[in-house]
Amino acid sequence: MECWDLFLVEERIKTFKNWPFSDKNKCNVKNMAQAGFYSVATGADDADAAKCFLCGKELDGWEPSDDPWAEHKSHAAKCAFVQLGKNEDDLLLPELLSVIKQYMINETKRIAELSKEQIDEKSKVVRRRCLVRK
Ligand SMILES: [Zn+2]
Q1: CA 35–ligand 1 middle distance (angstroms)
Q2: 22 Cα to the center of ligand 1, angstroms
Q3: How far is the CA of 25 from the centre of ligand 1 (A)?
Q4: Average pLDDT, stretch 60-89?
């Protein structure tokens, strides 16, 4: 996730610029955003690519009749947001805090994963240099 803004449903709605379905469809922008998704589309080819702000699950290939909550649930049952199963406006403070906590845990894991990769990369380079020197 790029920034904390995406915790807010209004901000997630703003990310859907070329969403293929209209508000009459169940799979509309508002329902997508309420189910935790924001758009990660880069162009016309992946106009329906969407990602969960909390668990980071990315889904595309949406059908107009899809229920974003149901899809989120079936593809990422462990997502803390799915497990609450509520719109943000209805969340109680402890629930909201647990979502934020889960986000921090996920983010910390992601960063740890990234730095591990960087360290592995670096150690490879160092090893190669040592071998050359011998
Ligand atoms: Zn999720």
Answers
A1: 8
A2: 23
A3: 21
A4: 91
Cβ contacts of 12 within 8 Å, gap of 6 or more: 6, 32, 33, 36, 37, 38, 53
Query: Which residue do the tokens 């989120």 mark?
Result: 72
- Ligand 1 centroid, distance to 4 Cα (angstroms): 15
Domain locations in the chain as residue ranges: 4-133
Contact (Cβ atoms closer than 8 angstroms) between residue 18 and residue 41:
yes
Q: Which tokens hold the place of 21? A: 């379905």
Residue pair 54/99 in contact by the 8 Å Cβ criterion: yes
In this prediction, residue 84 carries a pLDDT of: 84
What is the Å distance from ligand 1's center to 45 Cα? Answer: 23
Q: Is the pLDDT of residue 3 over 70?
A: no
pLDDT digits (tens, 9 = 90+) for 15-55: 999 999 999 999 999 999 999 999 999 988 899 999 999 99
Position 1 pLDDT exceeds 50: no
φ, ψ at 50 (rounded to 5°): -135, 155
Q: Please determine, looking at this structure, whether the domain spanning 4-133 carries the CATH number 1.10.1170.10.
A: yes
